[in-house]
Amino acid sequence: EAQVTQNPRYLITVTGKKLTVTCSQNMNHEYMSWYRQDPGLGLRQIYYSMNVEVTDKGDVPEGYKVSRKEKRNFPLILESPSPNQTSLYFCASSLSRTSAETQYFGPGTRLLVL
Amino acid sequence: GEDVEQSLFLSVREGDSSVINCTYTDSSSTYLYWYKQEPGAGLQLLTYIFSNMDMKQDQRLTVLLNKKDKHLSLRIADTQTGDSAIYFCAERTSGTYKYIFGTGTRLKVLA
Asked: A42–B102: do the CB atoms touch at under 8 Å?
């Protein structure tokens, strides 16, 4: 089954404790992206990757890191989480930018930083 | 800069039509998407339209595009309680990967 998976789905942590949220897709998609969803703000893009070893900042990259060592995986790293990073995070992937092909979204990771 | 705007809430009675509105700013060749997010789930693509089209219909869904006013609407005919969700409008310039999302409209369907 074609899908985007994220782990963990729920996470409670404390300020400053490094964490990683994994994202994996099995569709051989080139493009992957991370978003955060906050009430009244919609989805805002954190980072995206156009292919292996190619990443770039989205609209809200501060406090986050990503890596793309393999095509299927795109982990999101919070080196020193802070309470303002409490949010719902979505990973997404897409095949091509030249067609109407849209993004496929993972189920989301709800993060609470105390 | 690029911006996509939506109203935050909409409430309709079961069986009525729902119309969710969105305005966007990008004037380039653009794809415009409607996504549905049910509670506890990710975003699911409902439909999309390219900026050179005026209308697209898919079963109970009708998308209307007013290019002059950069206004996009999603009409859901015969709205059901299962349509209760958050609906996001998004735009993407053709040839890029950058998506701009609206704030989402929470649709509540009253029985």
From this structure: yes
Strand partners, B34: B47, B89
- pLDDT, one tens digit per residue, over A61-101 is 999 999 999 999 999 999 999 999 999 999 999 886 655 66
Residue in chain A lying closest to B87 (CA) = A42
CA-to-CA distance for B79 and B62, rounded, in angstroms? 12
Chain B, nearest residue to A5 by Cα: B42
Q: How far apart are CA B45 and CA B71, in angstroms?
A: 19
- Would you say residue B2 has pLDDT above 70? no
Question: In the prediction, which pLDDT does A100 show?
Answer: 63
* CB < 8 Å to B99, chain A: 33, 45, 103
pLDDT for A73: 97
Q: Is the separation of the CB atoms in B27 and B1 below 8 Å? A: no
A5: helix, strand or coil: strand
CA distance B9 to chain A (A): 11
